[in-house]
């Protein structure tokens, strides 16, 4: 009873390994981080002015909304690069490997087509928008162009991921099958 069994001990050996490798990150990671901190600063300024000073700064709420949209679209670019968007993995577990590869390739092609279509739609929307933001003198079309930039980056990363999948013959969805 007093003897320790080595197989029952919990190991915390890997928990202190907080190594940072800059090569794991891309330009959109740093851009998203910068915009995220602008968003945090904006929300803090909004909170401070409203609850400490008693008079809210008008432009902070609108800018927080637009910064959040930018963080969302640039964050989606990171998810495309890493292959971490939501996917239904259930069916891949019960498919034969050849059918799983075919379906994964089809998903890559649909992603590329979707991003391409969304680039066109956001371009047309931005081109037709002439309104200004409510609290600052910035055209709303700039926001749509930033969304379009997010889709362009997603398209570039989507093509890179599809090429990687095609060359290696593997896919994140198929790895759960093995």
UniProtKB/TrEMBL annotation:
It is a multi-pass membrane protein. One of its GO terms (cellular component) is plasma membrane. It comes from the Bacteria. GO terms for molecular function: transmembrane transporter activity. Residues 42-167 form the Tripartite ATP-independent periplasmic transporters DctQ component domain. GO terms for biological process: C4-dicarboxylate transport. The keyword Transmembrane helix applies. Pfam families: DctQ. It is found in: Cell inner membrane. Belongs to the TRAP transporter small permease family. Part of the tripartite ATP-independent periplasmic (TRAP) transport system. This is TRAP transporter small permease protein. It comes from Vreelandella sulfidaeris. The lineage of its organism: Bacteria, Pseudomonadati, Pseudomonadota, Gammaproteobacteria, Oceanospirillales.
């Amino acid at each position: 009873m007093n003897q320790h069994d080595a197989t029952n001990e919990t190991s915390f050996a890997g928990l202190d390994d907080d190594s940072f490798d800059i090569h794991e990150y891309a330009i959109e990671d740093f851009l998203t981080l910068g915009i995220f901190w602008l968003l945090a600063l904006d929300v803090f300024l909004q909170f401070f002015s409203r609850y400490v000073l008693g008079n809210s700064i008008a432009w902070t709420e609108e800018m927080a909304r637009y910064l959040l949209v930018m963080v969302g679209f640039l964050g989606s670019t990171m998810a495309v690069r890493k292959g971490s968007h939501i996917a239904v993995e259930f069916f891949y577990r019960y498919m034969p490997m050849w059918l799983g590869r075919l379906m994964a390739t089809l998903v890559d092609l649909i992603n590329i087509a979707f991003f391409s279509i969304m680039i066109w739609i956001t371009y047309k929307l931005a081109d037709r928008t002439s309104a200004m933001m409510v609290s600052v003198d910035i055209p709303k079309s700039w926001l749509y162009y930033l969304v379009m930039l997010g889709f362009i980056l997603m398209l570039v990363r989507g093509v890179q991921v599809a090429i990687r999948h095609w060359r290696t013959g593997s896919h994140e969805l198929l790895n759960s099958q093995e």
